[in-house]
Structures are given as structure tokens and as C-alpha cells.
Amino acid sequence: MVKIVHAQTVLTEDELAALKKKCNESSTKEALSMAVQHYLECQYTDIDDQMWTKKLEKVVQKKKQNKV
User: Fold this and answer.
1) What is the Cα–Cα distance from 17 to 15, expressed in whole angstroms?
2) What pLDDT sits at residue 65?
3) Confidence at residue 49, expressed as pLDDT on a 0 to 100 scale
4) What count of other Cβ atoms lies within 10 Å of the Cβ of residue 32?
5) What region, left, alpha or beta, does residue 24 occupy, with left being phi > 0 and alpha being psi -120 to 50 degrees?
6) Nearest in space to 32 (alpha carbons), one of 4, 2, 7
7) Which residues of the chain are modeled with pLDDT < 70?
């Protein structure tokens, strides 16, 4: 059985508006739900050395492409 809990956070109005826009949602509840689900599923949100290595590799690749 899954237990459901209520969670809250504090955001600025600008942060919330940006989140809603990025999620393409008008509802705060849905935008926050989408953001949390993405964070839990995204391969880049694991806190480990590989995450930073992957991010740095992408930055280096982009810089190389921009120089060409």
C-alpha cells in the first residue's frame, strides 16, 4: 500500500512562474508534481562523480562545436 503525504516548499513568484512555464502547466500542484517526478527519474540528478563528469563532457563538447 502506498502512503501519500502532503509536502510544501517556499518559492519566489518568479521561480514558480518559470516552473509553470517550463512544465507548460497553469496549476502549481501539477507543475511541482512534474518537477519532482522529473528529478526522481532524471539520470543527471544522482549525486555522484559520474554526474559531474557527464555534465562537464557536454559543456566541453558544446564549446568545441561553437569554435568550429
Assistant:
1) 5
2) 84
3) 64
4) 19
5) left
6) 7
7) 46-49, 51, 68
